[in-house]
Amino acid sequence: MVFYALLLSLYDDERYLCRESTLSFVEGDAKGVLHEEQFTITDEEIESLKQELLIAVAEIVAGKFLVDRELAEKSTYAQLIRLLNI
């Protein structure tokens, strides 16, 4: 929900600012009861996600994931790293 609130905040139109949202589940639980979950999204959560995404993009562009051996051992792209001999 925070990701969608971030996208809407970047639209530059206050009509689309989102700080509360509701998920309505379309399938009932074991008893057949439908549920709704409400969420409140703070400016801090949006800013935190924005910063996290900016850091991730910078690391991807710089190719840091290609030389991080610890990450390579924990992830499915380890074979690619070995093939590239990095």
Number of helices: 4
What string, H for helix and E for strand, traces the elements in order?
A: HEEHHH
Q: Any idea what the shape is?
A: flat
- Which sheet architecture does the biggest sheet show? 2 strands, antiparallel
- Count the strands? 2
The whole-angstrom Rg is: 20 Å
Strand content: 5-15%
Helix content: 40-55%
Major sheet: order of its strands? Answer: 1-2
Q: Which class best fits the helix and strand makeup? A: mainly alpha
Q: What distance lies between the first and last C-alpha atoms, to the nearest angstrom?
A: 37 Å
Q: Would you kindly provide a written description of the structure presented here, covering whatever features stand out?
A:
With 86 residues, this protein is mainly α. It folds into two domains: 1-41, no CATH class; 43-85, no CATH class. It has helices at 2-9, 43-62, 69-74, 78-84; strands at 20-24, 36-40. A two-stranded antiparallel sheet has the order 1-2. 3% of the residues are buried. The model has no long low-confidence stretch (mean pLDDT 88).
Features:
2 strands; mainly alpha; 4 helices; 2 domains; 86 residues
Summarize this structure briefly.
The protein has 86 residues and is mainly alpha-helical. It has helices spanning 2-9, 43-62, 69-74, 78-84; strands spanning 20-24, 36-40. The protein has a two-stranded antiparallel sheet with strand order 1-2.
